[in-house]
């Protein structure tokens, strides 16, 4: 279960980075 939580946190972090890159690409 702990691994799942850690994996979810990692996914959220990746999503944040992806959104940041996407936004900087559009501007």
Instruction: Report the end-to-end length measured between terminal Cα atoms.
Output: 40 Å
Number of domains: 1
Shape descriptor reads rod-shaped
- Please report which band the strand proportion falls in: under 5%, 5-15%, 15-25%, 25-35%, 35-45% or over 45%: under 5%
Number of helices: 1
Structural class designation: mainly alpha
Largest sheet: none
User: What is the count of β-strands?
Assistant: 0
Low-confidence runs: none
Q: What's the pLDDT, averaged over the residues?
A: 92
Describe the model:
The protein is mostly helical and 27 residues long. It contains one helix and no strands. It has one helix spanning 2-26.
Keywords, please?
1 helix, mainly alpha, 93% helix
Secondary-structure topology with pairs:
Elements: H1 2-26
Give the structure's gist in a few sentences:
This protein is mainly alpha-helical and 27 residues long. It contains one helix and no strands. It has one domain.
């Amino acid at each position: 279960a702990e691994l799942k939580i850690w994996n979810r946190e990692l996914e959220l972090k990746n999503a944040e980075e992806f959104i940041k890159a996407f936004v900087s690409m559009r501007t």
